Amino acid sequence: MAENRGGYQxxxxxxxxxxxxxxxxxxxxxxxxAAKYMPGLEYGQGQVNMINQQSAPLAGNPMTxxxxxxxxxxxxxxxxxxxxxxxxxxxxxPITQGVNIGKGLGSEALSMTKPDDTxxxxxxxxxxxxxxxxxxxxxxxxETRQAIRQLLDQx
Length: 155
Fold this sequence. Notes:
The protein is an all-alpha fold. It has a domain at 118-154. 30% of the residues lie in helices and 0% in strands. The chain has 5 helices and no strands. It has helices at 45-55, 74-77, 118-126, 128-136, 142-154. It is flat.
């Protein structure tokens, strides 16, 4: 007796992403995330949320297992983490510190130095023949010609 093969055929081994052209594989029918109930919503919203999750399931999670919270030692668990509701660790520092507006130091507080461009000017002048050659080619775009012109003007 012949098998019925019409209609949707769910793939047995779907690909997580499809490749190009001849390497393409079906991506439908893959693993999905289970619908999860979210407590604390307004009355009736939890059920609506569950129905929405079941009607359009999310893609499966590629991680097979995540480390459990209790796997970490207590000392390492909270190292360096400051809760959002904790008091400021810098109460005398303005919120605009490091920004060039408002109170406090501007961007000079970030200790970012402006690079010395004397080496840049010296090095660009040594590439002048190559850059001129590229600029003179018939297939060079106007944007590339303009960029080369700006580089050479800076040197």
